């Protein structure tokens, strides 16, 4: 069923309601992920844990003058701003993601279990997290996450899930609290990994953005394909970047604990935040616990990974002050 029109960057587009896939067994979850390019899992993380993380972030924002103090009075409401609030960015602030209550959500054992079930093998997550505090009028443009990671030099032996997870990596988008569409919720172009015509010449230059040599203006230096969601799907005219009518935008109002798993080649964005409140969310990257893949990741991007056991040991040490027996692990 179509949602109300949503401001997708610079244009209003038609969107459909995301459906919850959390009740599906792993084999059907994999099928839906391959079919649609994403799956939404409602209540994947205990909501109370998410709200503890949200409180920690709001306390930080208030202490820095980036949010109104009364935002702490009702955490289920939006994080309000006024003319005295300072602009803030959480991207690149690794220490914020290390706050124990925040890290406990971003590296929750339930997420490790979810990805392990999809991969069919133990999972690891990248230590770097992409935290966002997005104010009114801002959004993330149309892109796929594959542009931020170089392709694997070869497919790891024995990993048949490579077709399900191109490059052996996937994203989990985590709303940190209630995130309605009006606050800039995630929008996913369903089916874009199959039907967006990269090989037809419509997207000739859209590729890996990490190289200093890629400076094309269509998104390979910023990672954004376009600011206009209607160029892909859902506009008054057929999406000019879409090879057929199978692509459509899906979104919904997210609740604490909900997550979305995305293929790296699925086109997505966030709706423009039209509320007078901050949207808190985080992008996290996951991959199978394969020495070949982790070695490739470290060499190609400089990013490091962490297993569930290592994460839980480090969290325990940070909250109890006890020495971490796994402190030497990479």
Q: What does it look like?
A:
The protein contains eight helices and 14 strands. With 330 residues, it is an alpha+beta fold. The strands form three sheets. Strands 4, 5, 6, 7, 8, 11, 13 and 14 form an eight-stranded antiparallel beta sheet that branches. The longest helix is centred in the N-terminal third of the chain and has 17 residues, at 47-63. It is globular and about 50 Å long. The N and C termini lie far apart (46 Å).
Brief summary of the model shown:
The chain is α+β, with helices and mostly antiparallel strands. Helices cover 24% and strands 19% of the residues.
Q: What distance lies between the first and last C-alpha atoms, to the nearest angstrom?
A: 46 Å
Q: Which stretches are low in confidence, meaning pLDDT under 50 for 5 or more residues running?
A: 156-160, 211-217, 323-330
What's the order of the H and E elements? EEEHEHEHHHEEEEHEEEEHEH
Shape: globular
Put simply, the count of helices is 8
